[in-house]
Recover the amino acids of this structure.
């Protein structure tokens, strides 16, 4: 999508032809900077520190990290070690493991001296595939927005609430939850987005608001506490969120707080959709409560970073001195609260049957 | 309650015998400062800017503000004008209007030159009554905590989730939601409090954590997004929150986000209690959706204040530059989601019948 009129992806091959450059997401929205990643270790550090984040994007970044590792040492031992090392950086998003498995399959049968080139080709394909997948999610999601718009007073915008950032900046381009929104906006369908701030790391206020603003989509930041109240007053037409892992039965792991919005949507008859590529589906798990939930640093709760009046960036301690904090990164929204899953193949019910209908090749034997 | 071993109230008559001093709550938790308020205008400004906040406390502060106004000019016109002026500072909390009506009744039949002295007596009584009312709320709430503790493994703490600050610092002493917690702690019943941060003004992380820490009560700060996840995993035994207004049918207005926690509590069979003094009941309203909801500044959402590493206080802009924000101060939790109301007269169902049982003198004729 565009930043100040210039088209961007979140990740691209550097001019040297083998290292990658990415948008440094911990600097957003205060600074738009890119950084170079020149090894699997660099990629791991960027994923762990969330300089690179978003379930689809961390898969893409890890894929290139593996390619760089194979360029240095294409042995079986190094392949296995690097995959394990990259996979452990973030536990909840399944895309990371999916992308690394795709990479392994692309190289493991090849002779060592072919592996690096094959890995780079596969990593590039994964990125291009992600763009096309997200575009298709948008095509299917747009139909939902059009149907809601048709029931509203002409000229009134469709009000969409989203949580965290499942935008283009969490993917390679388009985004998952935002793809229908961008396509609606580009097609002159009036939309307005309620952007949940998404504490503790405020990916909503920092990233979703940034990318919607940069592309010109009308939006309003709200605190995470506000969505239920807005739904009670008829100010939300639907919710669309992304996800880090969907189980085979349709349970949805996503950024902490998603479950609360799904409860409020149910209580107010507001449709609650989850947008995802097939790579986010964990066909091995049948119960969302078994998804590992990342425990993150208390500092993310106790401190906030922002711009001082002079434009410099500062971090302040906001809470009562000495009070401890707990920081669960994700929660699980039970399938019963999800109106539908928007995938690149279409929209389905959040259930085993719904998913099997769209992905018959994955139906359990 | 105590701060560093020293007993405090939130509001007291100054040595001059006519002005008041209060804890400056916008400086907490970074600085413990008191300020003097010497006129109704001072009190109004302190209430509006939330230097003084919490439904019971703003009632007490307004009562003294009226007494100071009558000391200057005890005329009927000035009485009427000052009551209207003070009442309009915060629209949602009913206690403010209740306290001003109590004050009016205490002085209006008196000759003008008796009014100031009567007003000071009534304001002091309102403060003392609030302390006793909150203490009794704690006595009744403690029984609930004891019953839950009896069903837990001996030695395991009772885990209480609270939202915003309905602590002693929101009242004159004890607090409403915190009063059962302090009484349990003082009686050596093991408790642990999950403190919702409570964006945008983080009264949980700043005030509830501060006062629990200062009194030695074990607690952990969480972001507002986390409570549902903790309930799903059995880590919350009950919720207790305060309220700014309860309608005659038991609907509860409280800080934005309370409704989301009540939904999660219902979905996980976690009891959800609301603690309140009788002065918080609005007998004139039958539907929570008709309670006026204060709209506050977008800056509260877009900026955060805290301590820099050198100890100085700074405010940083946290969100994407140029993105707008909306800031509803309160939401309404429907009575159907409330397990019980904890009042100074005991615990009742959140319903017309429940309230009428405890307050038969207010039963509609």
């Amino acid at each position: 999508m565009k930043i100040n009129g210039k088209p961007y992806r979140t990740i691209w091959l550097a001019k040297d032809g083998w290292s990658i450059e990415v948008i440094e997401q911990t600097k957003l929205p205060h600074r738009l900077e890119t950084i170079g990643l020149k090894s699997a270790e660099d990629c791991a550090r960027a994923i762990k520190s969330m300089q690179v984040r978003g379930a689809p994007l961390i898969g893409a970044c890890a894929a290139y990290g593996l390619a760089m590792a194979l360029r240095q040492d294409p042995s079986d031992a190094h392949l296995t070690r690097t995959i394990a090392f990259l996979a452990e950086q973030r536990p909840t998003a399944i895309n990371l493991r999916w992308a690394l498995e795709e990479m392994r399959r692309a190289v493991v049968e090849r002779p060592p001296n072919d592996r690096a080139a094959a890995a780079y080709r596969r990593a590039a394909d994964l990125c291009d595939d992600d763009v096309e997948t997200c575009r298709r999610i948008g095509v299917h999601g747009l139909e939902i927005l059009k149907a809601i718009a048709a029931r509203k007073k002409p000229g009134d915008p469709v009000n969409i609430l989203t949580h965290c950032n499942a935008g283009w900046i969490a993917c390679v381009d388009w985004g998952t939850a935002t793809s229908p929104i961008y396509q609606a906006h580009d097609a002159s369908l009036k939309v307005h987005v309620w952007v949940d701030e998404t504490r503790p790391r405020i990916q909503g206020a920092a990233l979703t608001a940034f990318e919607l603003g940069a592309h010109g989509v009308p939006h309003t930041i709200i605190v995470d506490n506000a969505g239920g109240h807005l739904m009670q007053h008829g100010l939300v037409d639907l919710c669309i969120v992304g996800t880090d892992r969907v189980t085979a039965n349709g349970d949805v792991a996503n950024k902490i707080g998603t479950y609360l919005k799904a409860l409020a949507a149910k209580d107010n008859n507001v449709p609650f959709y989850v947008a995802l590529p097939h790579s986010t589906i964990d066909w091995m798990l049948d119960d969302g409560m078994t998804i590992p939930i990342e425990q993150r640093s208390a500092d993310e709760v106790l401190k906030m970073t922002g711009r001082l009046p002079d434009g410099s960036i500062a971090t302040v301690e906001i809470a009562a001195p000495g009070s401890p904090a707990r920081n669960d990164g994700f929660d699980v929204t039970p399938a019963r609260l999800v109106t539908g899953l928007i995938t690149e193949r279409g929209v389905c019910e959040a259930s085993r049957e719904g998913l099997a209908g769209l992905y018959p090749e994955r139906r359990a034997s």
